[in-house]
């Protein structure tokens, strides 16, 4: 698993970090069930993968950054509202659950966010490609790991998804 073949084309860790962050925000308010969060995360992951498909340039990480950027600024990002509608969350509910000013940048090798128009930018995910090889694959710091709680899909998730 250690062989590196130049920039990777997949966007799995970046999207996972973004999705984990947004569903983490929904989770903190406690009015969304774990099962709803699983559905929401899946829907958001699919929507982002689809949205970014032709706008992902690992060799030029910032190309298309504006297109990939997820924004809530008194207007809900359509990708988020679409995923939320799958679990029956209305726009007014989303506005209550999520910050009214949120920008999430999902770029190859780095995912960062800012809450509030002049908040500081926090990095959610940074790939090891930009770091010395000693640090192993985009490991999240403990703080984020707790926040995202992303170990493996929970077992009940597999059961609740019926075709």
From TrEMBL:
Gene3D superfamilies found in the cross-reference section: Anti-proliferative protein, N-terminal domain
Which InterPro entries does this UniProt record tie to the protein?
Answer: Anti_prolifrtn, BTG, BTG-like_sf
Q: Where is the signal peptide?
A: none
Name the SMART domains for this protein. Answer: btg1 (SM00099)
Which GO terms are recorded in the biological process aspect for this UniProt protein?
negative regulation of cell population proliferation
Residue stretches making up the Anti-proliferative protein domain: 52-72, 98-117
- GO CC annotations, alphabetized: cytoplasm; nucleus
Pfam families from the entry? BTG
UniProt family annotation: Belongs to the BTG family.
List the protein's name.
BTG2 protein
Instruction: Write down the species.
Output: Promerops cafer (Cape sugarbird)
Per the record, the gene is Btg2
